[in-house]
Amino acid sequence: MKGKLLTESTRSRALRVALVTSSLRLAGAEKQTVYMARALLEAGIDARLFYLGDGGHYETVLQQAGVPLIQIYAPNRPWLILARLIGALCLLRPHIVLVSQFGDLVHGGTAGRLCNALTLGGVRSDGWYELNARGRLSQWMLRLAHGLVANSCRGRLTLVSQGIRSEKIEVLPNVIDLQDFDARSALHSDISVPSGRIIASAVGSLHLCKRFDRFLEALALARRSEPALAGVIAGADCGAKAALQEKANALGLAPEHLTFMGECDRVPALLMRSALLVLSSDYEGFPNVILEAMAARLPVVTTPAGDASLVVQHGKTGYVVEREDTQGMAAFMVRLARSPSTRLNFGETGRKRVEKEYNYESLASRLVAIFHSFAAQQRRASLLELLERGLATRKIEPLSGALLLEGPAA
């Protein structure tokens, strides 16, 4: 593990941050939560994760990383979970409570406020999900947090357009630990993909919003011009697989043309065997899988969901197509399938972009700067003093919302 972990003698003098989440399943938002907990701990911050769920892929990962993990779980008893969380946080007295996913503000936001911590909520979709997720309760949840940390400029813009004050939202783009990704890419894997084919992969849970039906339509169209293309869909079935399989059959996509892989814990290995990634979603915040594809030196064909059109540079690291333009998606798939040199050039440019703009090593500094911004707004003098010490150590300036609104550098 990188960095220096806290000893018991230094914990009492450190900045205390409590992260709250109810999910540690194998998914992008959960991976970013793990990254944040690790990065804060490695930066000398007393970071502890309060887990309001039961089991999950990243539970073991956190334990192996040395992140203190406190599980508070009572099936079908939300009020008991809330009471226990309030008690645990009042005992810890954290300076900051960071609720990584918006839905968990009901518990984490309430407990954070009651223990007088600077309470921050996560926005991991395009903003509309957060506004509509809990009906009228969503507006209360938005007010409950002192500040919101969005992983996309799109999410921030949506919330501002609906009356949320711009200064209440900071943008923290997703990152990727390239050292870990490269190590997992090299692991032996029994992943089976069609041999002798040009593989176009699509990765994500099989939800309707991911619109894998578009991917199927584009794949069928592309194969008319380039029969060497084959598709792989990797992700847990969340109710959409049966309809997708039926559509694949209707489109004439035989098993040798399309593989439903199911949930995959070896995505880096899959991407290393692919030629390109296709993202066909209706909405996203910041698609984590795009970073993984670029880290694997793959070109990306994507809809402009969330910040995908900011991360993927059209004509440089991949192609951006309108949501319903399956013919355009198919045409770009054919273009990439027929040009190994374009795939190589786009892939190398994408890898360099990830290394520069979305690296894990910058995460702790970005988080501390965001904490500083919100602490200044709330006029928390003692917290500002702790944070400014961290900012000085890392030689960075507090972030500004105006700068972040422009999105990642193109």
Notes on the structure:
The protein has a 7-stranded parallel sheet with strand order 3-2-1-4-5-6-7, with helices on both faces. Strands 10-9-8-11-12-13 form a 6-stranded parallel sheet, sandwiched between helices. It has 19 helices and 13 strands. α8 links the parallel β6 and β7. Helices cover 46% and strands 14% of the residues. It has helices at 8-11, 28-42, 57-65, 78-92, 105-114, 128-132, 136-144, 153-161, 178-185, 212-225, 241-250, 267-272, 288-295, 308-311, 326-337, 340-357, 363-377, 381-394, 401-405; strands at 16-21, 46-51, 69-71, 96-99, 118-123, 147-150, 169-171, 198-203, 229-234, 258-262, 276-279, 300-302, 318-320. The radius of gyration is 22 Å and the shape is elongated. The longest helix has 18 residues, at 340-357. α2 (28-42) packs parallel to α3, α4 (78-92) runs parallel beside α5 and α13 (288-295) packs across α16 (340-357). With 410 residues, the chain is an alpha/beta fold. It has 2 domains: 8-175 and 360-405, Rossmann fold (3-Layer(aba) Sandwich); 179-357, 3-Layer(aba) Sandwich (Rossmann fold), CATH 3.40.50.
